[in-house]
Write a structure and sequence with these properties.
This protein is an alpha+beta fold. 36% of the residues lie in helices and 22% in strands. It folds into 4 domains: 8-126, Uridine Diphospho-n-acetylenolpyruvylglucosamine Reductase, domain 3 (2-Layer Sandwich), CATH 3.30.465; 130-250, Alpha-Beta Plaits; 252-329, 2-Layer Sandwich (Alpha-Beta Plaits); 345-370. The strands form 3 sheets. Strands 8, 9, 10, 11, 12, 13, 14 and 15 form an 8-stranded antiparallel beta sheet that branches. The protein has a 5-stranded antiparallel beta sheet with strand order 1-2-6-4-5. Strands 3-7 form a two-stranded antiparallel ribbon. A hairpin with a 5-residue loop joins strand 4 (75-81) and strand 5 (87-90). The chain is globular and about 60 Å long.
Length: 387
């Protein structure tokens, strides 16, 4: 564990950088940046307990990828212990450094198989002192893409989150999670939770959001909307999104998928995958939600009410293959932000480009010839065959 490596080594507001050790808790980094009048945009459900080293090793995503990118996009420099025992020290807070291979990007997302990240220099941004949040009921699933395009073009670059949710998941949250209740007067099938953020007074995000919603309503993209009138109301709306995971857990057994497809293909993926799994497991309850703005959908499936949990989970591999085949057919990825580890080694062998796998194996062999670091993860063994 790197939990004792938890020092913030430096913060440079003028350079918009912060150098931190790998054991620092993500939420504490966010708070430190805020105290300096800056913003660190990486944000995810586990931010109160996850460490930045793990976030970088897995290239974490989260709710702000649409505007700021993944964890790798927030890094300017890296320090890491290599399998040879040598220390890679490249913590320069430079936005231009064209001196050969970008080694930090090789280590970010490698899940500890190539080196152990011990510190990083992170990008900071001006603190967004304006925020506007709304929960929107969509006309239908395809309308989510039209509404996204409308929100992006009308937000002046301030759109940072655009989260798709199905009624099944919200019903789980309403049923099981304290403090979650429906803010609308009538139920709908599909919803989007969106947030705009800006710094300074050159742009008014409340005005932008109101115009976006008005235009979407006139165009028929949406049926209804609830705009948060305070920070507390915004938190209550976000609690609905965060409550889906806990609500589904309390509802019973589930088979989960963290996938991505081109944004334009999100409705097609959900509709075709839904039909396929419903045909194989009658009564199954799909609970799709996620970051539709970057094409990442958590296509989670809850057991049928009349089916035993153990019997449902015995279908895990078969259902995974059905879903992931749809993803591959649309040019997507079976792992959008949760990584590979050991559990998705078979999928790597089945779906990853063979040449890409050979290059990954060659890099691993060159940097870690004795397979000391996180063996058995990410890269299929040499004798593995595609299923």
């Amino acid at each position: 564990s790197l939990e004792r490596l938890k020092q913030i080594r430096a913060i440079d507001p003028a350079n918009n950088t912060m150098t931190v050790e790998a054991g620092c808790i993500l939420a504490e980094l966010q708070a430190t940046a805020r105290d300096a009048g800056r913003f660190f945009p990486l944000s995810l459900a586990a931010e109160g307990s996850c460490q930045i080293g793990g976030n970088l090793a897995t290239n974490a995503g989260g709710i702000n990828v649409l505007r700021y990118g993944n964890a790798r996009d927030q890094v300017l420099g890296l320090e890491a212990v290599m399998p040879s025992g040598e220390l890679l020290s490249d913590l320069h807070g430079l936005r231009k450094n064209n001196t050969g291979y970008d080694l930090k990007q090789l280590l970010i997302g490698s899940e500890g198989t190539l080196g152990i990240i011990t510190a990083a220099t992170l990008k900071l941004y001006p603190y967004p002192d304006q925020s506007a949040t709304a929960l929107v009921a969509l006309h239908d699933l395809p309308a989510s893409i039209a509404f996204l395009e409308r929100a992006q073009s009308g937000s002046g670059g301030t759109l940072c989150s655009f989260e798709l949710m199905h009624r099944v998941g919200l019903d789980f949250a309403f049923k099981h999670v304290s403090g979650c209740s429906d803010p609308m007067t009538a139920p709908h099938e599909w919803y989007v939770l969106l947030s705009l953020q800006a710094s300074g007074d050159a742009i008014n995000v409340d005005t932008l959001l109101s115009a976006i919603l008005e235009n979407a309503l006139e165009a028929g993209d949406i049926h209804d909307a609830v705009i948060a009138s305070s920070e507390q109301q915004a938190k209550s709306l976000w609690k609905l999104r965060e409550g889906i995971v806990e609500g589904q857990r309390l509802e019973g057994a589930s088979i989960k998928h963290d996938v991505s497809v081109p944004v334009s293909k999100v409705p097609e993926f959900i509709e075709t995958a839904w039909a396929t799994v419903a045909k194989r497991v009658p009564g199954i309850r799909p609970c799709p939600f996620g970051h539709v703005g970057d094409g990442n959908i958590h296509f989670n499936l809850s057991q049928p009410p009349d089916m035993d949990a153990e019997a449902f989970l015995s279908l895990w591999k078969e259902v995974n293959d059905l879903v992931h085949d749809h993803v591959a057919g649309l040019g997507g990825s079976f792992s959008a932000e949760h990584g590979i580890g050991m559990s998705k080694i078979d999928e790597m062998q089945r779906y990853k480009d063979p040449t890409g796998l050979k290059i990954m194996a060659a890099i691993k062999k060159a940097l870690d010839p004795d397979d000391l670091f996180n063996p058995g993860k990410v890269i299929p063994p040499p004798d593995a065959d595609a299923r």
